[in-house]
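Re: the multi-chain job from yesterday

Posting the exact lines I submitted so nobody has to dig through the queue logs.
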Amino acid sequence: MSVDNLEPSEFSPRQNAVLEQALQLLVDGGEKALTTSGVARAANCSKESLYKWFGDRDGLLSAMIAYQASKVRTFERNGERLTSASLHDHLVIFSKDLLEVLAGDVSLALNRLAVGQSHRDGSKLGKLLLERGRRQIDRRAMGLIDSGKRAGLLRFHDADEAYHTLYGLIVSDLHVRMLLGEPGLKDTARQAERAVSAFLRLYGTEKVLAEMPLVG
Amino acid sequence: MSVDNLEPSEFSPRQNAVLEQALQLLVDGGEKALTTSGVARAANCSKESLYKWFGDRDGLLSAMIAYQASKVRTFERNGERLTSASLHDHLVIFSKDLLEVLAGDVSLALNRLAVGQSHRDGSKLGKLLLERGRRQIDRRAMGLIDSGKRAGLLRFHDADEAYHTLYGLIVSDLHVRMLLGEPGLKDTARQAERAVSAFLRLYGTEKVLAEMPLVG
DNA sequence: TGCGAACCGTACCGTACGGTACTTATCGGG
DNA sequence: CCCGATAAGTACCGTACGGTACGGTTCGCA
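And the result, structure tokens for all chains:
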């Protein structure tokens, strides 16, 4: 466990390249394929360098998660005034993005890795994955929901509760199923549309409900 | 892969005892602790017997899942006439049961195991887990939802879709978080109540909505 | 009582992994 | 031109696992 709290600058370019190779290895062959020798061979570096840079195998895994998280940048919301239609659209886009992220090769591989290790390391990797990987997406959604409330389009007491409802409506048991090896959704757009529709029915104000197709 | 399609009788009592020990080992120490030698030692049996009974390590894992699934028996719904209140109560009970099952030690351990193996074996364990472990709970919920529809309390086109919505409302991202090592919910009753309330708001007919507290 | 099957306990084998040590080569600065 | 640092490549070590083989023991059964 050599790497801990160095948010900025993180790793050197060379180290990033090695981590990229390690991720590729993990995606292709699962954790079993992610051996220190394998990483060294794939990245054309020595095992000694691996251990100098990342401490031990766990440090390498942590670094892989940190590196992958550092690659994902979710563009901030612009401060535009939300309308009923634009809120709906933004929510649908968010839903599709979320489903796409969760279904991604690297995301699934890292989640599988962290799940598999959660017994050994006191869920260190799991924490890392949730904090570094999910925080951004959570913030994006929370910002959107808050904007909706300020625009008088959404009504709720607890933003966290509303967000978790939205998350459940979007993802359902899909994430776990994919982690277990099931192929992903055929039609993510439809799933996103359904989820947002249900969410707005639950949390939308009259202003929003008036513009929604009637149930039935 | 010695064990495949022998639904009834499954394993001998002795083998069941061994599988029980193996599950305990898995729960306590994760997959790393589940070695063939360890199982043999914990269960006071020989490795040779393990291989004779289960073929190889994968066969043992499959047998553990099958054995655990065979232990779970969900009582069938009685054919009573549903009222708005009883539908609500049954849904809440189902929600709490679902959360309790997903948070169970053995369930989490087996799910972690299957997730970790999903790369190697073409998700054989994952399929097994979903088919054997989830089918019963799914059927229970579907039966309940169908009864609600026949009683004029629920309205939907696609029962599957409605069920997945309910599932998402209940579980949200809790299952994955627990798989990653986060502690479970403090208050499952509240979560269940919220989920059912939202579900009924989405799929309940006027008969149900009339009796619900107004959204505030 | 004797026989055979099942099974326990243990020792064993090959392999593969995590981690370390050592040699060689590249490269920037005085 | 030399020197120290950094890192590639390789060889190596200890360990632990999956799987197999074998001797000894129990138990059902004729």
